[in-house]
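DEPOSITED CHAIN:
***
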Amino acid sequence: MSVALLLTMALSAGVPGARRPQSASRVHQLQASPQTVVVGYFSAQAKPILRIASEDIVEVDTLITSEPEGLRQMGLPESEIQRSLINITKEVTDQGPGGHILTGPIFVEGAVPGDALEVRILGVDLAVPYGYQACRADWTFVPSNCQNPRARVIRLDQKKMTAQLGPGIEIHLHPFFGVMGVAPAPEAGRISSNPPGNYGGNIDNKELIAGTKIFLPVRAEGALFEVGDGHAAQGDGETGGTALETSLRGRLQFVVRKDMHLKQPRAETSNEFITMGADRDLVKAAKIAVQEMTDFLMEKCALPRTEANRVAGIVADLHIAEVADESVGVYMTIPKGIFASDCSGNHGLQ
């Protein structure tokens, strides 16, 4: 389907920003091509390649974060290298400082600075039967562990959703998008896709699999959402330099939230609420995530700050999302099960 047709479908979707029942949500198909991706950056000046209404669904393709030549050097047969990846590498010359191929930007009608963009991750599927893992001294948390071969292809069993990492080592795959983000404020200019930040970006949060939601603070009109950096699996920290990198297909629903005003990204799984922080300093990133959790508890349950801090310290868990991407990503989780159906105003968690 052409980008022009997608734009026509989106523009005919109704009143900008209007909420519609899910049954009326329009579904858009968005394939990765030289015309539908940006390489390596987020920017409020980036030209949107798709306009949608709030509550619309986008079925989106994303591409593995590697140039074709790198895959060839790892021994991947030419017949398995995606043609779209080859075309993008040849044709997209306007590239930012980061290395990710990101599908987008997607303009969500009605989203303005001060809102939040809720992204419902309805589905994430493997697009190819392989991934790779690579290390480099400036990516790998313990550089001395990065020795030859520095990169290799790893086969993925798409039926069993497993991969063999070595003799007797079989892992279950949990695919997710490493990069999900919106444009920064216009005055920030063009920023790299490499680090995470308060706009989302390369957050590498392994919890954000199918069935979860991420909430991103909108800082530019239309939000200008971009997605990519598919991971078939990753451990907290991404300490080896990369995750198990692959191409993915996703089904995402976008909802403009006028009732949420965020400083940092947040997320929600079936069992937990998640707050996030990012900074070049691990301690500062952790403090951001903790402060966000404290603020969340104050908002949700009308708790005084001291009580919210107490609950976070007793119940919530602090995790390192990644240490490989210029800034460190930290997230904090708290179980949904501790909350009464409505804890606001009673200062008690049941």
